[in-house]
Design a protein that fits this description.
The protein is α/β, with parallel strands linked by helices. Helices cover 33% and strands 23% of the residues. It has helices at 42-52, 67-79, 120-124, 127-132, 144-155, 174-177, 187-196, 212-220, 268-282, 288-302, 315-322, and strands spanning 5-9, 13-20, 34-40, 57-64, 82-88, 94-101, 106-111, 133-138, 160-163, 182-183, 226-230, 236-240, 252-255. Strand 8, helix 5 (144-155) and strand 9 form a beta-alpha-beta unit. Helix 1 crosses helix 9 (268-282), helix 9 (268-282) packs antiparallel against helix 10 (288-302) and helix 10 crosses helix 11.
Length: 331
Amino acid sequence: MTAPIALVVGSYNQDYAWRVERAPSAGETLRGDAFRTAAGGKGFNQAVACVRQGAPTAFVAAIGADAAGDGARRLAADEGIDARWQVRADTATGSACIVVEASGQNRIIVALGANERLEPAFLRACAALFDAAGVLLVQLENDIGATRAALDLAGSRGVLRVLNPAPVHDALDAALLGRCDVVTPNESEFALLLERTGGARVEADTLACRDDAELHRLARGLGVPTVVATLGARGCFVSHADARLRGDAQPYYRIAAERAGVVDTTGAGDAFSGALVAALLRARDRPLRDAVVHANRCAALSTERPGAAEAMPRLADVERRFGSTRSEDKA
């Protein structure tokens, strides 16, 4: 029997990144310390993270009929990703402007281009990938109709559906969240999801400081079986609707952040989501906690190199630094 695959439906962007001492103020021009262009897009970053963590990975996305799109094809092939591209002649491949400060913090502007033209019909034409999938991972840099279609195609096949709700889309609502089994928001996305679903109105920068019982109460307001929220330097938090979900012994818990020599935080959230899905696929009989610990470690390592997709560590890198993940790992 063929082993199931990780299926990522998402975006490809060509990243254009500048490194500066600090971000410019309005009307100010600064000299940059360095410039680079490389592959990005939340979907592609997560697909690279997933395949580098040892999971057979397929990727579905839209690109333009341009040089950046040609580069995307080559990069996916080089990574060993089974990519299916909807090529759009009516718009350019997505692009992103990234300003990285000396502290490692970043500011990003995205022109999604072809990503917003990914069609549900193209996804349905990729039905064989959904048949082969063990886990689906989606984000919100595509047309929302395509995201819904991907979740529905996976749901009809009993595939575990993971949503990284970034960036939060204007059309995101409780109905779309109800199609998901797991969501992986950061603090600002968590706060926006709560507001969108009527769960609560909270300040994003207060979430990490709240006690675990309060975070669990808020997470249950999203209506998703499992919430895995990343909280930056305060680690990540897991909340289940049922304590027995996904092999965990507790209905909620927190995992501490790993130490890292931060250079660039651009792809850390993507490293986390991609590594989480890879771990879920590779060790389906183990508790979710193990997958979260592993994803946390992968995200930490990703911040020690500049860039997005190319900064994703490999499984051997994670195990060399931290060892293998075991159920007895402590928070």
